[in-house]
Write a structure and sequence with these properties.
The complex is a heterodimer of chains A (330) and B (383). Chain A has 330 residues and is α/β, with parallel strands linked by helices. Chain A contains 10 helices and 13 strands. By secondary structure, chain B is mainly alpha-helical. The chains are: A alpha/beta (330), B mainly alpha (383).
Chain lengths: 330, 383
């Protein structure tokens, strides 16, 4: 059927805007990337940079005021925006599942936690019988480190960490090819956060599943991903192997983002604050969207969007890349 | 839970005591009393007037009458209705209360169901003619002046179109020569309804054990079969025509009550739904690939229902209060009409009896909803 070496997911020139009373907000502008089978991709950036909008596009779960102005999302070569609503419904969770940003409220308070997972398993006929579905949930609970007996409990009887684990178990319930984890650990304390991240990484490798990890926490992303993309003002500004990007950041924004996070293992250094605010997406500045806050900005940055500079799989969209091994492609 | 119920019962008793006290003195505060009607007759000699007063016990001071009444009520003796002499109040109520309950429980159930169904539908698909139509017509009916609207319904459907009888509980022409009483027929109708509801609940409970979405396909034929058995039994019983006559008399008042009250539930459901739709678990349900209807009913509407259930109690109590108006307009011999006539003629024991019933019902409805919440929302527990 499909070649294993083909990318699982191809996002090609995706642009998305929301119609609001203040005008058209350009949430995603010309974003393209590929995701190989079994690999982990990170998307990092400040709040409001379009990370979650990308995730919602992949699931095709967009609010009514969203408009896809250009681009395609190919899952196994199939454009998800060409599917009918019913076809898309059957793809959700079976092919792409999601660990939501606000895990606290993702579980419906009036149903037992196990029942909410069984519901997904039944909808997609993953298991033939009720008993098999229950066994599957028990297995998933053990996998994420929960006592299977907890499936008879209600969400309000769970702690924050337990809920997050249950939500991860729910996302794994139909053996998806791709799991999107949107700020999966933001609401948790650092210790639980770290433990869940490690488990998530282990599960991903064990199941050979692809994962897209969305976070503003660079440390967490560096720990669990193979490839990372940095987003700013709805654009993907830098992308490459996680190690390359974080060791030799090319885009000034990536560097600024990194220096504003503390590093535990690295040298002690004062944290720097990135001055200014992200641009208003209903009226983005011309040229490079980062120029108003960039220390290296010149006249060309203010007028023209920068071309890609590239070295192997590592690329950035910048007129003045910090890593000079990246060169423009002819 | 037990401790909670005991506490609630204590509160109920106290509230009922207050209701009895206030009602008693309010009726006493009216000028004159039941005996006035006879006493005003100039032909009666004074000693006969005094005798009549004494016969009703109205010669004693109000506080003494109150204490006697309280003592009798506590021993379960509600006295004899002045206006229906010599029938005891309990006997009168036993006849009238079921008629009111059936009318208003049916109307409340129907209007709640319609209101909830329309409310969740218009919240789910916002905008469009359907939403405007339902909202505007619902709001107009909701704010209509009840007696005028009820009279209009009678004029259109009973008088002009002649589809339904003009009012009252039964048609004397149909019942002429019948060898059973209306109470007997009505009692059996209530038993049939109770039997059917029990049957339906048992079927649902039984099917639920199999899980895996069998219900609607299997359940519907079983329930229809049960209903058919009851209809056949009534047809064969020979009094089916009489029962049908009562049902015919119920249609118009139930329809009127439903029309004036469904919009309350509808608009409340709509608002509640618009809030739950934004919840993350609804988004998650959609992301899980559940069918649209399942997302709407099992996730959004199920949670939107919680505040609506509270309003259900109030609308039920409101309906019983409103029974005074509706029953008067439709000449429906229920508690409301009885209360109105009793107050007018200062039939003190009957007023007290009717008020005791309405008070008990309101308080019970509150307790039932509080208990129901425990089953609807697992987060709620009472200590």
């Amino acid at each position: 059927m499909t070649d294993r070496s083909d990318p699982l997911l191809t996002v090609d020139g995706l642009s998305l805007s929301y119609q609001t009373r203040q005008g058209e907000v350009q949430a995603i502008r010309n974003v393209s990337f590929e995701l190989a089978r079994g690999s982990a991709l990170g998307l990092v950036g400040e709040s409001g940079c379009g990370k979650t909008s990308v995730a919602n596009c992949l699931m095709r779960l967009l609010p009514d005021n969203a408009r896809l102005s250009a681009g395609r999302v190919l899952l196994d070569g199939q454009d998800v925006f060409l599917l009918t609503e019913e076809e898309m419904r059957l793809q959700r969770w079976r092919r792409i599942s999601m660990v939501f940003q606000a895990a606290m409220n993702v579980l419906n308070p009036v149903y037992r936690v196990g029942q909410q997972i069984i519901e997904a398993i039944e909808t997609h006929n993953v298991e033939p019988t009720d008993t098999a579905a229950r066994e599957r949930v028990a297995r998933l609970f053990r996998m994420v480190g929960l006592d299977p007996q907890l499936m008879e409990r209600y969400p309000h009887e769970f702690s924050g960490g337990m809920r997050q684990r249950a939500v991860i178990a729910m996302a794994l319930s139909c053996d998806p090819d791709l799991m999107i984890a949107d700020e999966p650990t933001t609401a948790l304390d650092v210790i639980v956060q770290d433990r869940i991240l490690r488990e998530l990484k282990a599960i991903q490798q064990q199941l050979a599943m692809s994962i897209i990890y969305i976070s503003h926490d660079i440390g967490a992303v560096a720990e669990v991903t193979d490839v990372v993309g940095v987003m700013y003002a709805g654009r993907l500004v830098e992308m490459g192997d996680t190690a390359d990007v974080f060791q030799t950041p090319a885009h000034p924004y990536t560097a600024a983002l990194m220096s504003s996070f503390p590093s535990i293992s690295g040298e002690r250094r004062p944290l720097t604050n990135l001055p200014g605010e992200p641009p208003n997406l209903s009226d983005p500045p011309p040229g490079c969207p980062f120029h108003p806050r960039c220390a290296y900005a010149t006249d060309v940055c203010r007028t023209e969007y920068p071309p890609q500079v590239k070295s192997g799989s590592h690329w950035a969209a910048c007129w003045h890349p910090l890593d000079v091994t990246l060169v423009p492609q002819s | 839970m037990t401790g909670y119920l005991v506490r609630r019962t204590g509160q109920m008793v106290l509230t009922l005591f207050l209701i009895i006290t206030f009602t008693f003195f309010l009726v006493q505060a009216q000028p004159g009393d039941y005996a006035s009607f006879y006493v005003l007759n100039p032909d009666l000699p004074p000693e006969v007037k005094d005798q009549i007063r004494a016969a009703f016990g109205l010669d004693k001071p109000a506080w003494q009458q109150y204490l006697i009444h309280l003592k009798n009520t506590l021993t379960g003796n509600l006295g004899v209705s002045f206006g229906n002499f010599p029938r005891p109040v309990l006997d009168v109520l036993a006849e009238r209360v079921p008629r009111t309950l059936v009318l208003f429980l049916t109307a409340t159930a129907v209007s709640f169901y319609i209101g909830f169904f329309l409310g969740k539908a218009i919240a789910w698909r916002r905008g469009g003619l359907f939403e405007y139509g339902a909202t505007i017509s619902g709001a107009m009916l909701f704010t209509a002046f009840t007696p005028a609207f009820a009279l209009m319904m009678i004029w259109v459907f009973a008088f002009r179109l002649g589809w339904f009888p003009v009012g009252k509980f039964l048609d004397p022409l149909v019942w002429r020569g019948a060898d059973v009483s209306a109470n007997y027929v009505f009692g059996n109708m209530l038993l049939s309804a109770a039997a059917f509801i029990t049957f339906a609940l048992l079927v649902m409970l039984f099917l639920k054990r199999f899980g895996r979405r069998v219900p609607s396909v299997v359940a519907l034929p079983i329930l229809l079969g049960g209903a058919l058995v009851i209809v056949v039994a009534w047809t064969l019983s020979g009094i089916g025509g009489l029962a049908l006559d009562i049902v015919k008399h119920m249609v118009l008042p139930v329809a009127t009550l439903t029309l004036i009250s469904f919009a309350g539930t509808m608009l409340l459901t709509r608002n509640s739904m618009l809030e739950t739709i934004r919840e993350d678990y609804v988004m998650a349900a959609r992301a899980k690939g559940l069918p649209d209807k399942q997302v709407r009913d099992r996730h959004a509407a199920r949670n939107a229902m919680l505040p609506i259930v509270t309003s259900l109690v109030y609308s039920l109590i409101f309906a019983i209060d409103g029974s005074v108006i509706i029953e008067s307009v439709f000449s429906w011999p229920g508690t409301g009409l009885t209360l109105l006539e009793a107050v007018r003629s200062e039939d003190l024991p009957l007023v007290m009896g009717a008020m005791l019933f309405i008070g008990t019902l309101s308080l019970l409805a509150h307790v039932i909803v509080d208990v129901l919440y425990v089953y609807l929302d697992p987060r709620i527990r009472y200590q």
